[in-house]
Amino acid sequence: MNDATTNGRIGSDPFRPIAGRAQIVVTGRIPDSGLEILRASGEVWAWTEDEPIPTDVRDARLADADAAVTLLTDRVDHAFLAAAPKLRVVANVAVGYDNVDVAACNARGVAVTNTPGVLTDATADLTLALLLMVTRRLGEGERLIRSGTHWKWGMAMMLGTGVQGRRLGVVGLGAIGEAVATRARAFGMDIVYHNRSAVDRETERRLGATLVTLDELLATSDVVSLHCPSSEATHHLIDDAALASMRSDSFLINTARGPIVDEAALVEALTSGTIAGAALDVYENEPDVHPGLLGLDNVVMVPHLGSATVETRSAMADLAARNVVAILAGDEPLTPVGGR
Ligand code: DGY
Q: Residue 340 falls within a domain, yes or no?
């Protein structure tokens, strides 16, 4: 951990609020462009370490805070809000906001914002990368080369599954699901989707996508890709029964949120051959990964990299900062979550 000259209000005494200027707390490292936008609105105190901010340090900062910029690793709950009596906005630097108790914020008149749109392409790109990795066994191939094992090309060596003409089942056809379907279509895949309600006709036509029940999607898709939010309603949406209803030659991709999948049930399904493989960017108890996954060759795993491009992370920070600026100026936020 660094001292207060690094983790502090840049260019001023890190411990003394400046009267009359809004106090903005940034709970984790964000790109400089976002900090620059925030500085136009108030005094910025930013935690600049990679490790999580200690709760006592955070709470001391929140005591004077008008605005908090948070990351998906923060829990914005009653304790967080109790430490921040002046808070007007929580700007979460993520499209997902399952880490924020929106109802508790709203009850205190604290606005919540997220960062939709700016990470759609990056997350969809990663989803397709994972889809191709798992269907073409690229993780296994890479591990083989890195292990130094002798190998030679052969007609039957490490055969994967082609995706052309296969069915992609998108669970949650929002912006990211749609961007994934667009890419998958370019790879020659057919699209079905499951949503609470149908998307507009033009989108369905452009994607060649058909709305089906979740049961039908699971039973008929070659690849199931999850793009729904994490909530009580979607907790363990993919459990042992859902996995059992999938085809034995099918694949599961999760770039949404870990708790949507029962990870223990997934280990069992991958081990017993209930499904052919899985590719994961997110985990039920992140950053922990179920130990049963670690030794399996038919799972590809990356560490929550969906939005991890330089351009996207800057755009996310900038959007979160612009939401703070708007609210502190008394304007409507650009991308609010829920009510106020
Ligand atoms: C999000 O924004 O919710 C993503 O998971 C971040 O990578």
A: no
